[in-house]
């Protein structure tokens, strides 16, 4: 019996760059069996998200129930959840699972398309942060979750405190969106544990899915039995290597690579 199983709950990216497709590639690279619960389908390439279609609530919850009724899933992550209804249904199901839950609060694509309705930010705060073992916002997402306008390292630490106050057990704020914070991510947990994870900045245009890939790698390492801090440390190294191996497949930013 193979028992290293992880689950990604998120959106399908038809271009194979981000979302569920990126997560499954990441799990595979870590030799973790990946399951997926699709929340919505996007028509997407490297330059645009052309359309987004959410799945029916019953189709969503049925995917979750079917997986957990048979598989011993060791960890899970969420990605694109789009709207209130999907967040509500997902949070209700996830509440009862005591495995590590990583919440990647995906809001906007690199190409500027909304992947979360504005009205759904409150549902994230109320329903998903309180059940999160780790939340992994970028600067833009951290601003919205903590009602701040982050400009520097001090603001990042302040934002992390606010996110912990909303109920998350731990938060990892990705600094890459700020000029001087590339490769620097700040971790804070509910017990006051804190740490700056600092990695080499890899200068490439092909960063499509770097956010999804980081949260999927953390989830994957947790499925392999590593603790949270070890999983983050290993995932940062994984991302550095995947960015070095990233490649272009269309006219816009390409995905991270795990092939070498
Ligand atoms: N599409 C889907 C389905 C996603 O889940 C995400 C991010 O998580 C994106 C697109 C955005 O990826 P990027 O920010 O690299 O454009």
UniProtKB/TrEMBL annotation:
Keywords: ATP-binding, Kinase, Nucleotide-binding, Thiamine biosynthesis, Transferase. GO terms for cellular component: cytosol. It catalyses: 4-amino-2-methyl-5-(phosphooxymethyl)pyrimidine + ATP = 4-amino-2-methyl-5-(diphosphooxymethyl)pyrimidine + ADP; 4-amino-5-hydroxymethyl-2-methylpyrimidine + ATP = 4-amino-2-methyl-5-(phosphooxymethyl)pyrimidine + ADP + H(+). Residues 13-256 form the Pyridoxamine kinase/Phosphomethylpyrimidine kinase domain. One of its GO terms (molecular function) is ATP binding. Its EC number is 2.7.4.7. It comes from the Bacteria. InterPro entries: HMP/HMP-P_kinase_dom (IPR004399), PM/HMP-P_kinase-1 (IPR013749), Ribokinase-like (IPR029056). GO terms for biological process: thiamine biosynthetic process. It holds the Pfam family Phos_pyr_kin. This is Phosphomethylpyrimidine kinase.
């Amino acid at each position: 019996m193979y028992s290293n199983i992880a689950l990604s709950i998120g959106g399908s990216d038809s271009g194979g760059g981000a979302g569920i497709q990126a997560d499954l590639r990441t799990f595979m690279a870590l030799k973790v069996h990946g399951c997926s619960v699709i929340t919505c389908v996007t028509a997407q390439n490297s330059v645009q998200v052309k359309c987004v279609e959410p799945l029916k609530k019953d189709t969503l919850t049925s995917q979750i129930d079917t997986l957990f009724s048979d598989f011993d899933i060791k960890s899970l992550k969420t990605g694109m959840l789009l709207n209130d209804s999907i967040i509500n249904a997902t949070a209700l199901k996830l509440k009862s699972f005591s495995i590590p839950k990583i919440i990647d609060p995906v809001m906007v694509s690199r190409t500027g398309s909304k992947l979360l309705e504005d009205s759904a930010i409150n549902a994230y705060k109320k329903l998903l942060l309180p059940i999160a073992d780790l939340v992994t916002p970028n600067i833009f997402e951290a601003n919205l979750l903590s009602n701040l306008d982050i400009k520097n390292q001090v603001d990042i630490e302040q934002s992390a405190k606010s996110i912990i106050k909303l109920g998350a057990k731990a938060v990892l704020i990705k600094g890459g969106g700020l000029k001087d914070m590339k490769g620097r991510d700040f971790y804070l947990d509910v017990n006051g544990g804190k740490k700056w994870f600092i990695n080499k900045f890899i200068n490439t245009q092909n960063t499509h899915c770097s956010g999804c890939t980081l949260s999927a790698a953390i989830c994957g390492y947790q499925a392999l039995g590593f603790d949270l801090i070890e999983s983050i440390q290993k995932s940062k190294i994984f991302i550095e290597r995947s960015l070095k191996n990233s490649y272009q497949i269309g006219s816009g930013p390409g995905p991270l690579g795990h092939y070498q």
